[in-house]
Amino acid sequence: MAGKESSSVPSTPLLKDELDIVIPTIRNLDFLEMWRPFFQQYHLIIVQDGDPSKTIKVPEGFDYELYNRNDINRILGPKANCISFKDSACRCFGYMVSKKKYIYTIDDDCFVAKDPSGKEINALEQHIKNLLSPSTPYFFNTLYDPYQVGADFVRGYPFSLREGAPTAVSHGLWLNIPDYDAPTQLVKPRERNTRYVDAVLTIPKGTLFPMCGMNLAFNRELIGPAMYFGLMGDGQPIGRYDDMWAGWCTKVICDHLGLGVKTGLPYIWHSKASNPFVNLKKEYKGIFWQEELIPFFQSVALPKDCTSVQKCYIELSKQVREKLAKIDPYFTKLADAMVTWIEAWDELNPSGAAPGVANGTAK
Amino acid sequence: MAGKESSSVPSTPLLKDELDIVIPTIRNLDFLEMWRPFFQQYHLIIVQDGDPSKTIKVPEGFDYELYNRNDINRILGPKANCISFKDSACRCFGYMVSKKKYIYTIDDDCFVAKDPSGKEINALEQHIKNLLSPSTPYFFNTLYDPYQVGADFVRGYPFSLREGAPTAVSHGLWLNIPDYDAPTQLVKPRERNTRYVDAVLTIPKGTLFPMCGMNLAFNRELIGPAMYFGLMGDGQPIGRYDDMWAGWCTKVICDHLGLGVKTGLPYIWHSKASNPFVNLKKEYKGIFWQEELIPFFQSVALPKDCTSVQKCYIELSKQVREKLAKIDPYFTKLADAMVTWIEAWDELNPSGAAPGVANGTAK
Fold first, then answer.
1. Which residues of chain B lie closer than 8 angstroms to A181, CB-CB?
2. In the UniProt record, which residues carry a glycan (chains A, B) (predicted)?
3. What's the pLDDT at A352?
4. Which domains can be identified in chain B, with CATH numbers?
5. Are the beta carbons of B178 and A143 separated by less than 8 Å?
């Protein structure tokens, strides 16, 4: 299978040794077969959710390390309580143990999509292009990404802003099953996304967006510590807001630090809608809470002395504790976990030190 | 020619009696032949620029009124000095004399574009759809316009924001010759826009954009008085910033009044690049001034008692006078013209009165 497609893949793909692919899963990773031409030369970090005694099968020929709950508990000790269990939010453990500059994370129900010409889309390559070219958060360019071949800044775009800002996040989209919430799934059970929008654009400074973790890449050095997926799943009153939480925190911190967030290309093929009834149960509280969270994030101000992602994130945790605890005691717990997450991050990623040792089940 | 295409055009097109098409020109309007199936049932307002003794030929069968400089001087008297001469900025006179709720304005070097399937694009119909559906200025929807068929709000989009905001402006794009400034034209003389991006999106609140007047529609009742294209061309130190100026003023006022601005579809086919050397001469000062104008518009705050477009615009003229006059005496003249424009607008559009009489050369 790899034969035909791989002809279009350069023999040494972009950022081969600088990027890890993080996959949270509870099942055998057969979906990787389809991604083989695009992923095989990269290193994978698999975060096994659920029962740690279960064996996850990974197709032959992939270079990976795998962490189950026992590994997470062993590596983080008491700090492991900041990593969610029985929820794909556990993926952020992979961001923490990676030693690479870039992360791509993808769900195991996501397949290779085709562009309108029928060509298979190398999603990872497009994400890398997005991350390696600047963003334009301070002024909107009507022809979308001005750094793409065949595009530029249009008349009226201030010249002083054309250098752009470093890109921290590349948010990719989904053909077939759109990323809808439970109410929308219930109302539109048959809706499929067939619209291929050939654009990448920067989410302007000051604007929040719903960041989906299904097909997401980021610069770990620039923004990694903000990519905490929160407390979801087992023992928590909420699910399916893990990536949203990470997105809101990340966007606010990117805006403060002058970093860019892009959305648009690449598409993946999202194969299967999750159960809307199960989703409704998970999302239920989030639907209410979100109405207060958005105004909170829209008005967050970070002080000038927050010059690193870690400092921003600790400051954000304080504001969460102060301003959101009144919604539900959950937010006090979450604020604690945000602090624990940063402590654990710094422990595994001592600044200036040589790459730390991550004792996973490396294979 | 009309026969074939018109089969896909409904016999009574959308908003037939509620929309005027405004065309600034210095030449015969042969380009209308190509637009016949889409425009013929609408009323045209032609603003003839340059020598008023010249006769502009309009193809048979179109319903139009035409205003030349003599008409403008006669109708506005001394206030006519707010309408530019020898510059397509004169088009805004057409917005003022229209009595309709909606305006579509298009340049006479813009032809019907084709979508990727080869179908001719009814640009006006798409603009109308954009204007008649809400905007989403307060939160970014990653699947673009959620009101389009086959799309919706994605997971994580706050439910309280899904009603959207009324749409005031629909900014369309251009295939073939992109709308570049003179320096970019000089550097990339052969660049053509071939990317058809199948999306409409709302420019978020607080974000400015470069509004091009080539292919633009708006709700005149909601935002008309802000669509002043400034002082450009004959006797002025600047050109080619008419639509930009209107766009910055309009966006700031839309943000203040809770109105939405969309960009994206529809495309027109822009046939001919203007001369980059001539353009450089016109833009020269704008390139410098713009660097101060953008921070000005980014920080404009309109007081709460500015509850109408007119009040907002008069307030904006005061701030232009106060804060931009230091750049160049031109901005004092412009601030005066902004006030004159609103006076003229109100004179021709007495609120609550029956439609006024516009004494053009109606045919």
1. 154-157
2. 155
3. 54
4. 19-362 (3.90.550)
5. yes
Please calculate the CA angle A276-A280-A282 and round it to the nearest 5 degrees: 115
Is pLDDT above 50 for B36? Answer: yes
pLDDT for the residue numbered A10: 57
Burial of B299 (0-12, 13-18, 19+ CB in 10 A): exposed
User: Nearest CB to B155: which of A116, A141, A210?
Assistant: A210
Terminus-to-terminus CA distance in chain B, angstroms? 24
Residue B193: its chain A contacts at CB < 8 A?
A: 143, 150-151
- Whole-structure pTM value: 0.93
The residues, any chain, with a CB within 8 Å of residue A47's CB and separated by 6 or more, are: A22, A23, A24, A25, A66, A67, A72, A90, A91, A93, A94
Which residue in B has a C-alpha nearest to residue A280's C-alpha?
B155
- Interface membership of B208 toward A (CB under 8 Å): yes
How many angstroms separate the CA atoms of A259 and A135, rounded? 8
Q: What is the pLDDT of residues B43-76, one digit of tens each?
A: 999 999 999 999 999 999 999 999 999 999 999 9
* ipTM of model: 0.93
Residues of B in contact with A117 (CB under 8 A): none
- Supply A272's token pair: 């299967």
Residues of chain A with pLDDT under 50: 1-7, 353-363
Select from A173, A181, A199 the Cβ nearest to the Cβ of B155: A181
Q: Which amino acid is present at A240?
A: R
Contact A99, A43 (CB under 8 A): no
Query: What is the largest distance, in Å, between two alpha-carbon atoms of chain A?
Result: 60
The answer to whether A28 and A5 have CB atoms below 8 angstroms apart is no
Please check whether residue B244 touches A, CB under 8 A.
yes
% of residues, chain B, pLDDT over 90: 92
B102/B218 Cα distance (integer angstroms): 6
Distance CA B48, CA B201 (A): 33
Q: Are strands B63-67 and B43-48 parallel, antiparallel or unpaired?
A: parallel
pLDDT in tens, B99-139: 999 999 999 999 999 999 999 999 999 999 999 999 999 99
Smallest Cβ distance to B144: which of A148, A197, A211? A197
Q: Which residues of A touch B241 (CB under 8 A)?
A: 156
Q: How far apart are CA A13 and CA A124, in angstroms?
A: 10
> What's the Cα-to-Cα distance from B261 to each of B133, B151, B171, B250, rounded to whole Å?
11, 19, 8, 9
List alpha helices for chain B, DSSP H: 2-6, 32-39, 69-76, 92-97, 123-132, 182-187, 220-223, 242-257, 276-299, 309-324, 330-348
**Residues of B (160-189) whose Cβ lies below 8 Å from A:** 160-161, 171, 173, 178-181, 183-184, 188
Residue B65 token pair: 């009124």
Residue type, B232: M
Number of H helices, E strands in chain A: 11, 10
Please report residues of B whose CB lies closer than 8 A to that of A203.
140, 204
Tell me how far apart the alpha carbons of residues B46 and A338 are, in angstroms, rounded to a whole number. Answer: 62
Which of B143, B152, B180 lies nearest to residue A154, judging by beta carbons?
A: B180
Question: Hey, are the CB atoms on B199 and A197 less than 8 Å from each other?
Answer: yes
Smallest Cβ–Cβ distance between A184 and the set B152, B183, B240 belongs to B152
Token reading at B281: 């001469």
Within 265-304 of B, beta carbons closer than 8 Å to A belong to 283, 287, 290-291, 294
Is the pLDDT at B4 greater than 50? The verdict is no
Q: How many residues are listed for chain B in this entry? A: 363
